[in-house]
Every structure is written in C-alpha cells, then in structure tokens.
Amino acid sequence: MSNTKKIFYFSHGNLTLKHRKLMNIGFVIGRIGGVDGVALEAEKWIEVLHKMNYNTFILSGQYEGRRMNSSRESILPELSFFSPQGSWGQQKAFFEPTDNPDELLDHIEHLSDKISDHIINWVRKFNLDIIISENASALPAHLSMGLGIKKAAQILGIPIITHDHDFAWERGERYLSKYYVINQFVADTFPLRLENSFHAVINEHGKKTIKEKYGRESIVVPNVMNFDMPFAEITEDNSSLRKDLGLKSKDIPLFQITRIVRRKGIEVAIDLVHRLKDKNIKLIITGSQADDEGNLYYNELVDRIMQHGLSKQVVFASHVINNRGLTGNLKSKKYSLSDAYAHARACTYFSTYEGFGNAFVEAVLARRPIFVNNYEPVYWPDIGSKGFKTVMLEDNNLTDEAVSNMAEMIYNDKINREVASYNFELGRKYFSYDTLEEKLTELISWAKKQLT
Fold this sequence. Notes:
With 452 residues, this protein is an alpha/beta fold. The protein is built from 15 helices and 15 strands.
C-alpha cells in the first residue's frame, strides 16, 4: 500500500478551534436511512449532537428511504456496500478468489485513494473538526472504504472517532481470505489504530477485547432509545392491529419482535407457548422468512409448531407489521414496530448472541415485560446486571420455574404493570438520549485533547 504524508490540519480560515463557537463533526458511513443497526445509531448520535449545538455533516455511499439535505449531506457512491467497486473487492477477497491477488490489491489501492481524496476535500470544504467513522474502520465490510478513511485520517491529522459496532473476529470465518496478504491487510487496517483515532465500542466485551488485542483504550457507548417520545401507545390508527392479526378479544399476544434468523432462539418462544397450555396465548412473530437464507430455520420453526399442535397459536405477521422501522410510514399499509409493541402483553427475546440487543431496550421503552436468554457476550455485563426485572434463561433452558415466573408476569396485571414501569425508569437511566449525551461529551473531550 502506498505511503501517506501526515499533514496536521487544525486551522479553519482565520479562526482556530479554540475560538470557534461551534464544532463541525462529520460522519462517514456506507449507508444511512433504513433499519440497518449502524445507520440507526448514527442517526441518534446526529440528533443528540444537534441538541448539544454541534454542526453535523454526513458523507455516505447511500441514502436509503430519505432525501439528502444538500447543505449538510454529501454522497460518494463508491462508499456504498452495494456499489460495483465495493462489491467486487469484497467478492474477490472473501468469496470468489482468483489465482493471483495482485489485481485485487491494485483495485483496493486505487479505490481507497479516490475515497481518501474525496474525504479530504469534504473535510476541508465543511471545515470539519472531528470525523466519526461509523463501523467502517472496525468491520472489513468494505476494504477500500476502511483503507481510504485511514489514509485520509493520516493526512488530515484531525481526531477521528471510530464507532465500532462489531469486529472481524466476531464473525467466525466470514472475513477470512484465501490470500495471506488480504488477511494481513485486514489485520493491519481493521480496527483503525492511529494516534489521532479514538474508539467508541457498544459493549464491555468490545472494550475488553480491543484492550487485550491492541492495548487500545475505548469508551463504551451503548445503543439507546428516545425515552421522551411517545412509543407503543394504542391509537386510533393501530387499534385494528389485533383484528388484522386474526386475534380475538380474549387472546393474549406475546410478541417476538425480531428477524427470523437462528440466533434469535425463536424455537424457545414456541416451546414456551406449548408449555403454558393456554389456547388464548398467541405468539406473534414479526420477522420475515426472507431474512432466513434458504428458509432452513423457518422450516424448522414450522415443523416445531406443527409437532406441538400450535398452528392456531403462532402467527407469522410480516405481512401485517412493517419491520423496517419503529415508527409508521404514511405510505405503508403496514403497522409499525411501535404499534406491535403497543399490543404486546409481553415480549420474548431468547437470542443466543447479540452485539447489543436493541429489541430488549425497545421492550423496556414500550413498558412491556420481556423474557430473555442470557445471550453472549452482552446481556448480563451490559444490560441484565443493571437490575432489570425479567425472567432470564441460561443457555435457553426453559425450566419449570422459569415457565411459572413467565406465566405470573403474563396473567397478573399488577405484576405486569409494576415490572414494566420499573424497567422503563431503569432504561431511562442507562439507555436514554441523556446517557448518549454524557457519552458523547466524554468522547469529544477525549478526542479534543489531540488538538492541544
């Protein structure tokens, strides 16, 4: 890879950072909009930074489901994970290797130079003081983007905060290449490790791992929700949801508000319905089978439903519920996830692995009890240990005691309300926008030390 010359770029016109009233912060992201977890959290960061009186700017490869604000938002199509250039590089690195990696290396090099040059010009155009790289410097999901950001950060010298959602080693062999040189490139480039780079990780496991592997300090910034906005309320618009799901007035809906993928442990929720032995209990699964490659897991769930005789008690509801967002879409005939939570008696969340677990915090925000597995590596260290009242399984072992405790939360109105209200206040304390503001203040203060 080519060498880059480090040039510190701290002055902005005739004003130094010390004397400027507002700081300009720029986000570099592969795509923004839609329901991608990285994009959703980036939007929250931007919202809170605006509240903190920072100017924010976005450079993205794709704007999904929303228009660009040309005064603050820019597009570079090569940053998109679905661009021909980005897709080709990933395909040849990890899925369809050729006999000689030289063409691939040249491609990564040239595309990263283009990306780097564009980032540098973007930073100078908007007088940016800090760059935030949204997972692009942590996970090698776009090799040229990661290298381009690294080159630009080396040349500019301004602080760069890497919002690290997940890392290559957390994905098994997904980012293991046939080529030694590509594996070495990934090891050298991801996560970004420069003097002017600072890590924001989303869980304690990430903080511990990055310290052990690289001796790098980081700040844990959990995923958050807006606890000051109305959410999961019965409204005139969503009052017909139960009817559209085929539920009767006496039915008691438990909601599994996740995608249909194996690590979500949906079979445990089906077993719970079987163990409760109440024909009025209905499990509503909001995810689509389209998320399950080859429909293998979906078919296993269907087999389990039939074996337990639960065909009338389990509803696959992706045709009714819009899984693309928490709030409704005026152009969509489907109900939002907020509408789904509004009609839930309780929520099931028996995942075996999560990087954080937004569905847990959503249920807390919705004031709904939640039944959870102690999923790795996050639940207990980052969430459960904070004191939330729930029924927690170990290794998805659905014991008689656990089923009994879940039944009590479902059927006892007083306990149901008390648990939900208690968890809501705890969620506000630990996973609200106020928490994010505190963490961003800490991060920016840490990064600004680079300027002195």
